[in-house]
Amino acid sequence: MAHSTTVVGPAGHHPHDDSASEHPIQHGETLQTYYLVYGALMVLLVLTMAASFVHLGHRGNLALAMTIAVTKGLLVVLFFMHVRQASRLTAVFASAAFLWLAILFVITFSDYFTRPYSPGGKLAPEPFPVQERPSQGPSGVETNRALAPDIHKQIPPTTPEAPPPK
Questions:
Q1: Does residue 130 fall inside a structural domain?
Q2: Domain that holds residue 79
Q3: CA atoms within 13 A on the CB side of 92
Q4: What is the 3-state secondary structure (H, E, C) of the chain?
Q5: In which region does residue 83 sit, left (phi positive, over 0), alpha (psi from -120 to 50) or beta (all else)?
Q6: Roughly what angle, to the nearest 10 degrees, separates helices 58-75 and 31-51?
Q7: What's the rounded Cα separation, in Å, for the pair 108 and 100?
Q8: What tens digit of pLDDT does each residue of 79-130 get?
Q9: Is position 141 within any domain?
């Protein structure tokens, strides 16, 4: 039977034990880093609230709000979820999640920006007479007026009344 000898250093610690060293290895972020990230998140929060009072047009406000939101999300993911110091595989999966989110935004906003009505929920003025759009069917004008009766009281019809048949 073979005996194994273990060399024990001062105070009962093994010579290769890192816990016995005077300079412990730092794992993760420092407390100062967390305070800086927290401060940045609070600044971005105030910036978000200030941006809500600035009118840059519909798309300008959307772009500004999305930029601020993505910046805040990246700070949280990189520092508080420790993706910054994780393996490359973790970074790949976190990036894939953001790629999937971007795909969903593109699909959603491509649908949203191509709708024929305004963001307020009312129908937009018709670009040309309804009679020239066969896709609406014969009762298309009445259907539109039923959906938004208040807007059609203010806007005259875009199609002239047909003369009575002879």
A1: no
A2: 28-113
A3: 3
A4: CCCCCCCCCHHHCCCCCHHHCCCCCCCCCCHHHHHHHHHHHHHHHHHHHHHCCCCCCHHHHHHHHHHHHHHHHHHHHHHHCCCCCCCHHHHHHHHHHHHHHHHHHHHHHHHHHCCCECCCCCECCCCCCHHHCHHHCCCHHHHHHHHCHHHHHHCCCCCCCCCCCC
A5: alpha
A6: 170
A7: 12
A8: 988 888 889 999 899 889 889 988 998 998 888 777 766 555 555 555 555 4
A9: no
The reply to whether 119 falls in a domain is no
Percent of the chain whose pLDDT exceeds 90 = 26
Number of folded domains in the chain? 1
